[in-house]
UniProtKB/TrEMBL annotation:
SUPFAM superfamilies: Phage tail proteins. This is YqbQ/XkdQ domain-containing protein. The lineage of its organism: Bacteria, Bacillati, Bacillota, Bacilli, Lactobacillales. It comes from the Bacteria. It comes from Lacticaseibacillus saniviri JCM 17471 = DSM 24301. It holds the Pfam family YQBQ.
Amino acid sequence: MAELTTLSVNSRGSSQQWDIKSLATNMSYVKDSNFAAGELTFDVLEVNEGWTPQNGDEVHMSWDGVKVFFGYIFKIGYSGDEKFSITAYDKLRYLKNQDSIVWPAGTVSQRFSTVCNLAGITSRVVSSSSHKLSAKVADGVSYFDMMQDDIKETKSATGQQFFIRDNYGVVELAKMPVKKTDLLIGDGSLLTDWSYDRSIDDAANVVKVVKNSKKDQGKSTSTATDSASEAKNTVLTSQSSVGGTTARWGRLQVVEKVSDDKMNAAAMKAKANQILAEKNKETRSLKITALGTLEIDVGDSFWLSVNSLADIGVGKRQVTVTKVTHKFDPKNWTMDLEVQV
């Protein structure tokens, strides 16, 4: 039977650790590839041994002999039944720090290393990118926001899906899937429940790229009373791309504004085609509940085989984990997985 191997807390830099594994209950661990810190939550009964948790304390947690979580306490609740409710985050939490940076042209892996150094966290580039990102200004936004834009642009240009995760105190930039496992989850193999959704709520099959130009570049307006003259002085040019799903879904149009006044029609058309390729598709969501295992992490893939899904066209295949929630109970260890289909 799986069990909690280590759960200890100590002040930063202190060698004195408090072993609280025998006091902990209701332990849950959430790890998400969508620019969010890993979160460990648990309850601890108060004991009269001089220990009280403090925000900023380090938390070390191992399950079944495997190191799972290293992070810091960010929230402490205390209730009438003399129980502490603790929330700790891994080092990705420090990528919520905000900054202003003028970025030269560079790759997503170069920028990742820079923001981790600025945030003061240990990092490792598991997968690097050779795609050059344009120079830009990031003003007063979080490191997460900076990386999200760069990862999105890299995916659009290369098709490669990068993401960020914490590996027991080392923040990693990696590419999905990081590891292709032989693990099988499905009928008669770990699976206990599942749900599958398909949606076009966020889809688009018509993309219009619009450029705003001024007839008289030497004049500008800044007040509401000038709106009529501004309209007379404005020229809108556009290029559109139309997908093949309009007859089936109806017209679903989005507009992309470009700030480059010198962008020509061919470049605008290419941009419209690129956005259309990203948006003219269903969003598919598959959530799985299974018996717990540490064989897979966020970013890893496993084999999925469910007869009922095969009946609607989702046959046996490898899928990649985008989010995992472990509910660490020695009597009933389960995990909820969100996967890319």
